[in-house]
Amino acid sequence: MRKEKLEMLAGNMSPPRTSFQCVDAMEISLCIEKEGLFFYESAGKKVQNPKVREMFSRLAGEEREHIQILKEKSQFLQPVIVNRSRPKERLERFMVEELEGKIFPSLNDSAMKNIKSDKQALELGIDSEKRSIAMLQELLEKEKKLDVKAIFSHLMVEEKKHLALLEDLKKQL
Predict the structure, then answer these.
(1) Is-contact 59 162, C-beta < 8 A?
(2) Is the pLDDT of residue 116 over 70?
(3) Structurally, how many domains does the chain consist of?
(4) Of 65, 87, 136, 164, which has the maximum CB count within 10 A?
């Protein structure tokens, strides 16, 4: 413990992060899923190839399902967390600084505005899924709580499936 503190002071280590709560992990997951849904719906309107359009529609549908499941689970947890005060500033700061518009491009993002081909749209989806997986991997490595890890792990499995589908479709084009 003392060695870690000295290394941290020397700049060799970042300070340990406080674990997220289960409900925080669900909110983070919801944010990622909502951005994914928005991306696949928006990009799906810009592509010409029916296979790419169908894939984006399928992925948007899966994101919708994931959002519904997360919302249902969050409602299930509400009675447990109502009486517990939890600092939301850290979660809100994390979502603004690390998530919003950093994994999936927003409608105003230049990458989104400049989609000129189906291949470019697929590559944008692939890059977004890779960023999502990297973010979830980082969260998993820093997380201590098993219930929170389970939420992030589940989402990462889904994101890896999306990545594989997009990469396979790109190879077919």
Answers:
(1) yes
(2) yes
(3) 1
(4) 136
**Cα 124 to Cα 112: distance, rounded to the nearest angstrom:** 8
pLDDT tens figures, 129-151: 999 999 999 999 999 999 999 99
pLDDT at 13: 42
Domain assignment present for residue 7? The answer is no
In this structure, what CATH number is given to the domain that contains residue 167? 1.20.1260.10
> What's the maximum distance between 2 C-alpha atoms anywhere in the chain?
60
Q: What is the 3-state secondary structure (H, E, C) of 128-146?
A: HHHHHHHHHHHHHHHCCCH
Q: Provide the token pair at 16.
A: 């340990």
- Domain that residue 61 falls in: 20-172
Judged by phi (left if over 0) then psi (alpha if -120 to 50, else beta), residue 14 lies in beta
